[in-house]
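Changelog-linked ticket: magnesium ion example.
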Amino acid sequence: MQFKESAIRVGGQALDKSDAIAKVGELLVKSGNIEPGYISSMLAREEVANTYLGNGIAIPHGIPKDRELIRETGVAVLQLPEGVIWNNDERVYLVVGIAAKSDEHLTILSNLTDVLDDAEEAKRLATTTDAGDIARRLSGGQDVAADAAAAEDAPQEYELGFEHVVTSPHGLHARPATALVDLSKSFDANILVRNKNKVGDAKSLIGLLKLGIEKDATIRISAEGPDAEKALEAIFNALAEGLEDEEEAAAEASVGAPLALEAIAYEGPVIKAISASPGIAMGPVCQLQRGRIVVAEKSSATAKAELQRLDAALLQGKTELSALHDDMLAKQGAGKAAIFKAQGEFLDDPEMLGKARALISDGASAGWAWKESYEEHAEALSAMKDEILSARALDLRDVGRRLLKLLADKVEDDPDLPDSPIILVADDLTPSDTAGLDPKLVLGLCTASGGPTSHTAIIARSLDIPAVVGAGADCLALEDGMRVILDGASGLLVTGPTEKDFAAAGTAQNAYEQQAEAERNACYQPAIMRDGHRIEVVANIGNVEEANAAVVAGGEGVGLLRTEFQFLQRDTEPTEDEQYEAISAMIRAMNGLPMIIRTLDIGGDKDVPYLTTPEEMNPFLGVRGIRLCLLRDDIFRTQLRAIFRASRHGPIRIMYPMISSLDELRAAKAITEEVRQQVGADPVEIGMMIEIPSAVMMAEEFAREVDFFSIGTNDLTQYALAMDRMHPQLAKMADGLNPAVLRLIRKTVEAADAAGIWVGACGGIAGDPLGAMILTGLGVHELSVSIPAIASVKAKVRSLSMQQARDFATRALACTEASMVRALK
Ligand code: PEP
Ligand code: MG
């Protein structure tokens, strides 16, 4: 096939990959090769598989089913001397657009691979100003003598092998060739493919494409080496199954399909929220009542003493408000700060204070009197027609509660829940709210704020409760007892379901449960992908009950033991012995399966009162995780002693949270080693969490000093996007599937690969089937997920080939928004 010079443009420019494909498509249109519609097909195909060949050359072409849009087989070349980013860091200088009615393009591929082999030649063609030069080179103007010499050098075939007739109408084109290369690389054996008199290395894409294997060609695959037989068997089976041929790939374009259940079109009104935990729940709404402040009506103290208590509380309240005002002024400007100034004025209101004092003089306690007084005034304000005045009632209640807490006998933060099944609705849930939840009674969770990585979402998944988050304030106005449907997978709260909605939800609930059961039945099978790659699926746990549950659920170990749970919900620090007992019990429960113990990660949202850490304005940016351990090395050493003493009960690894600098890592390692030697324990592997962007940027250096990385996507997301994972408005956007986070993950994996260490992921997205697929495609080796997610993540991984996961990850990386990643099919 000859190139038309008119179909070659030298010195071109493109904004990005899509622009480059569109431009080369236009060249094909102008040359009369294709209808304009074929350009969309070329763009769509790129979504299914990357057409980058190597040495700065890509070969975009359309999907086979769109061949009727091809008028005449032809090829166009767009030369981009400055190049364009194609994929990750692959840069393309020659875009060879192919429109092939049948398999003529294999000749071009064969010629291209010739150029591909020769980096210098590819470079020259990328900058030549002579279109004829490119045309001649790609039309097969290669040196016959060189070809003959190459044939002499060609490796010989091996004895062990089999013949295969290629039946695919498009021959062994780039996609199946890539699949064959990937599969071959998973074996140690040397594997060769022969087509007529040409022999190529099955582990080299160029090697295979050079063979120009067309439909009906008889090829011979042969192998030599320790696992040669196994390799040949795997290749034989893969070829028999079609080797991810194009039509098959198109049918599978929706890689989520095997596990996704049909979305329901509800008739009743819905509140759109964000999916946080799958499953469907139906039941009555219960609004969470939190922070009940208990004050006795009467006081045993004298009126004088109560008046003094009131004055002291007023003083403290004003000090708090003035500090808040100053801080707000510095951070967010005078507008926001003014709210606290105005709130402070309430504390000087003579009428309100007069009423409270009068009640105290009549024998009421200071707290009771204050509450009566501010509630009466707030009610009067909220009854006002003037919206601005009635809105002041909110402020008054806010400042009223602030003072009331100071005067209270008891501040109850435990949620007050009924003892019948409910769908719990709240603004957001704190760790202490969720700690007391009974999954048997809480059918579903809906929060007005929060995002897919918020605490609520993580807890809901770990308790296997369907949940939606980020539902907005409308959900807080729902009446207690009202029957609703919560559709966790679709991220919907159906507020007025019809009979038909209930029936559809019931059917979907059954289907969901059946699917979950099928996955559970297969939970002990390893997560081996369709092309033989294995992903380890392990559990995130916090206590011995969860260690047992993780094993029962099919966990292949523990990828994250959150040791801070030993420190939460108690009044004193756990002793070394207490920690030793707890950790030993968990190691024993794992029965020989490995466990990664993360050292104390406290601070941020996991505050522990008895550690008396000073209150911080930005706890997530404050003394948390390893920073606290290095500041309070007494706590750190005690924990490490407990861990090393327990290490004789089974295989463990140690991992540090929140590492942001090499100094921190080295300091933590030095203390760890000192404690290990004191205890006399054997060395264990040491890893670190990658959850701060600085750690990603320095990942190459870190990778040389640890045995493994575990990516904490929850924190990595909040720090990369500068969005508090608990923030009422922002958390819903703090999505770990944001392409910015995915690119950080890719960078982490690249650094780890270069240093030869492995990478796990233990944040929330690892347990989301979509997230699991993308992480796998990005090269993460171990997924550490909540216990209920183990079976479904394993099922998801098993349903994919590595090539599919990689393709999907590549498409995800190319997105610009998390919503685009979530919409990928
Ligand atoms: C993370 O940040 O992703 C993580 C796993 O740690 P945690 O959620 O405990 O902060
Ligand atoms: Mg974290």
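Closing comment: Example verified and attached. The chain has a mean pLDDT of 85. Residues 560, 562, 601, 691, 712-715, 762-763 surround phosphoenolpyruvate (ligand 1) (CB under 6 Å).
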